[in-house]
Amino acid sequence: MYPRNAASPPRIAIGPVVQISDGAVQTSGCTVRVLEEGGSEGDGGGTTAYSTDGVVLYTPTQGETDQSTFILIAKKTGCIPASVTVCTTNNATAGNVNVGSIGGTTQTGRDLGASVLLSSGTGTGQISLSSGAVTAGTVSDKTGYSLTATTGLGNQTANITGNLSGSVGSVTGAVGSVAAGGIAAVSFAAGAIDAAAIATDAIGSDEIAAGAVTKIQSGLATAAELAKVPKSDGTTTWNATALASLQAEATDALNAYDPPTKAELDAAQASVTLANGAHGGAAATMTLGGAGGLTATLTGNVGGNVVGSVGSLATQAKADVNAEVVDALNVDTYAEPGQEAPGATVSLVKKIGYLYKAWRNKSTQTATTTILYADGGSTTDQKTTVSDDGTTTTKGEMGTGA
What we know:
Blueprint lengths: L1 E2 L8 E5 L1 E2 L11 E6 L4 E3 L3 E4 L4 E5 L9 E7 L3 E2 L1 E8 L11 E2 L2 E2 L2 H4 L16 E2 L2 E2 L75 H9 L4 H5 L12 H17 L5 H9 L44 H17 L16 H13 L2 E3 L3 E5 L6 E9 L4 E3 L3 E2 L2
Parallel strand pairs: 1-10
Antiparallel strand pairs: 2-7, 3-9, 4-5, 4-8, 6-7, 8-10, 11-12, 13-14, 15-16, 16-17, 17-18, 17-19
């Protein structure tokens, strides 16, 4: 059968086209016409070729094969045409046939597929079926079977070789052996073995080997070793052995302690020296309280605030203070006052800054206005009014130049 609607249609042999006048078989110039079922005739869109003996060969397009039947006609002027009728099967693979029915009976995949419907019978070549199941007399050398308790199955007494899957209700008799590693932790579900799963007296002295008992006893403390453990007599106090041991340890600790005498404490209070890094830190810290405060000599660095008066500064302290004052006056720089109205109460830095600004920066004077410019010389930072009545010249208070 020819495949229907195949992506790559097979080639079709139409036949030879013969010249009427001399009977010559044509090997070129033939036209193939396609007549689809129930459709009109037209020139084919496929590929035309010729065999060595002059048979016209035609490879149709996929669309031309999408019919249950179609006719191919090879023709040429002055020649006898050749034709062929092609019947397709509902399968796009050449050589495959889709059977919808046999003898008028509709077929399904199960009828001719991997699963075959069987008819019950007792004749030669037939299979005896019971309720749709196959009854086998003897099964050997097979795996993967599932035995289900049904009427007539009875109790099974047999040897089972292989793996059992599923749950086993109970086993009567002995189990020959269990392979090494056959029972592991993963073999037991959580809670599979609990008190209810073990019968009373199921595990007794007879069920435990003598060697196992010895092994367990070897790991337990002996009576002599237990007597060494301090223990209570059942009341709130320790027994005599424990109390004696505690008393001895306390006595040793007190005897080893050497507290300072009063003379040592008085001498320590007379002078306190805190060295940098004392007591394990980068600098020592001391908090001094009391009504009398502290009268002592401190050597080292003092971190934090000193509340109260300092008697005098040492030579180095004086030099440090002087250096800071010189820096503030001769090293540190200060920006000139900006565009604003000079206040009556301002810092000494601003007051000196206004004097220097008025001496240095550009300024203008007209008959009515005095202007002091910023460092750039274009922005009016401060200004005031000026008047003259012929006797007294009055200059107003400086205000902002904005």
